[in-house]
Amino acid sequence: MKTTSYQPPHAMTPEITRLVAAISEIVGRFAATADVTITPRLRRENRIRGIQGSLAIEQNSLSLDQVTAIIQGRRVLGAPREIQEVRNAFVAYEALSSWSPTEMDDLLTAHRLLMAGLVDEAGVFRRGRVGVFKDQQVVHVAPPAQRVPKLMGDLLHWLKTTAEHPLIAGCLFHYELEFIHPFADGNGRIGRLWQTLILSQWQPWLSYVPVESVVRERQEAYYEALRESDQQADATRFVVFMLEALRDTLHQLTADQVGDQVTDQVKSFLRVLTVGEMTLSEAMKKLSLAHRPTFRGNYVHPALKMGLIEMTQPEAPRSPTQRYRLTPKGRSILKELGNV
């Protein structure tokens, strides 16, 4: 299919620059503190949160507990369609790593998985006109159906060749897909899924970032950002909204990851060291501890092993004047915990 050099209309504003920088900093800090390894428990929990959030935006009424139960194969009382939506979404999100975000066939396959058993036209572009309604009023009329294949071809070609940062490219693709509205149903959920896929091509672990749950909490603002961008024929407002949602989701994720890896004892030791270097005796006194072997085993050794603290005299570990201090990694963790 012949494509054009289409460029999604948007402006690179100072606000977008700041958001990209902030998100990149969080990503770098997360890599330094967690070795870019989200624990299996958090991966599953985050994926379920993302699925529940994305479907809730589409009026699926199932709770997080119900969605969890369905994914675990347990029986749930609920509308059959809503249960099917959950099963479909889980299959689609689990297949993310097998797709390329620039391949038309992969996009159609993803839609087929998301909408199987829910619409007749699962995995194919719409054949009729569609509009987006709010309070029984039309707020967006999508391009004619005959233009959809060409428009989507142009959009995928742009994504394949763009020099935009993946953070921005993901937002722009999401917005443009919603504008084109290529499918009879399921455009919102495929747009959010595809943005996650684009992000995962930049940082694979971002496929487990449940930005959909934050979007669900700000659902009205999400639709307002879409409307404003439509009215201005410019995606800048939507890009800002999605970057803010991603930044806030990452803040929560890194805090959860830190909490999953660092024990309460180590956290309390790190907090004590925020005032400066200390001997073990001074730290024990601050923590109201008296048993040195327990302190070494549960506080000092784990913190040293994780690189959260360091000795002031590493060449003489048994020196009577030995003191301990936070490393940059330790300070980063405390920052995520809200203690620095």
Word description of this protein:
With 340 residues, the protein is mainly alpha-helical. Helix content is 61%, strand content 4%. It has helices spanning 14-34, 40-57, 64-71, 80-94, 104-115, 148-161, 166-180, 187-202, 211-217, 219-232, 236-261, 264-272, 280-286, 292-305, 328-337, and strands at residues 131-134, 137-141, 309-311, 324-326. It has a two-stranded antiparallel ribbon with strand order 1-2. Strands 3-4 form a two-stranded antiparallel ribbon. Strand 1 and strand 2 (137-141) form a beta hairpin. The longest helix is centred in the C-terminal third of the chain and has 26 residues, at 236-261. The chain is elongated.
Number of domains: 2
Which class best fits the helix and strand makeup? Answer: mainly alpha
CATH superfamily of the largest domain: Fido-like domain
Give the topology string: H per helix, E per strand. Answer: HHHHHEEHHHHHHHHHEEH
Low-confidence parts: none
**Radius of gyration from CA coordinates:** 24 Å
The shape is: elongated
Number of continuous helical runs: 15
Q: Which CATH top level class of the largest domain fits?
A: Mainly Alpha
Mean pLDDT score: 88
Q: What gap, in angstroms, lies between the N and C termini? A: 54 Å
Q: Count all strands and give the number.
A: 4
